[in-house]
Automatic annotation (TrEMBL):
Residues 107-141 are annotated as: Disordered. This is NADH dehydrogenase [ubiquinone] 1 alpha subcomplex subunit. It holds the Pfam family NDUFA12. It comes from Sistotremastrum suecicum HHB10207 ss-3. GO terms for biological process: mitochondrial respiratory chain complex I assembly. GO terms for cellular component: mitochondrion; respiratory chain complex I. Belongs to the complex I NDUFA12 subunit family. PANTHER family: ADH DEHYDROGENASE [UBIQUINONE] 1 ALPHA SUBCOMPLEX ASSEMBLY FACTOR 2, NADH DEHYDROGENASE [UBIQUINONE] 1 ALPHA SUBCOMPLEX ASSEMBLY FACTOR 2. InterPro entries: ComplexI_NDUFA12 (IPR052618), NDUFA12 (IPR007763). Residues 117-141 have a biased composition (Polar residues).
Length: 141
């Protein structure tokens, strides 16, 4: 019975608090700590759409800023402005990637694209080839 009273008292003293939401509408909450360390609160996400839980099969992923907050890596939750800036940055990046891919595909079709060669990789390949071929020793003659 003491445990029930302690839980009730802690719930009244330190209630669950709404922390924020992401751009998709998922809500993030912080619950009081269940351990002796009051800094280690329990952080959870309440998904708007239950189909989102199918993450392993290419479903929705929560933003990295919220993931860091949930894992206690980040002390403060992200703001909506920060999430919007990051989304804009990713959209711009994807447009640039698509442009580069289209340009490379056009160059490949025109036969203009020369395969890239990295001198450091070539040197490493030559060194590994030299090490794998046995050296002739004067004793073997």
């Amino acid at each position: 019975m003491t445990s029930l009273f302690n839980r009730l008292w802690q719930f009244i003293r330190k209630p669950t608090r709404y922390v924020g939401r992401d751009l998709e509408g998922n809500k993030f909450y912080e619950y009081p700590s269940r351990t002796e360390d009051p800094r280690r609160t329990r952080r959870v996400v309440k998904y708007v759409n239950k189909e989102i839980l199918n993450v392993g099969r290419g479903g929705f992923k929560i933003p990295v800023q919220w993931t860091a907050w949930l894992a206690h890596t980040r002390p403060h939750p992200p703001t909506l402005e920060e999430l919007q800036r990051d989304r804009f940055r990713l959209e711009k990046l994807m447009i640039n990637v698509k442009t580069i891919q289209e340009r490379e595909q056009a160059e490949r079709e025109a036969g203009l694209l020369i395969p890239e060669t990295n001198p450091q990789i070539q040197e490493a390949d030559q060194e590994s080839t030299a090490q794998s071929t046995p050296a002739t020793s004067p004793l073997s003659k």
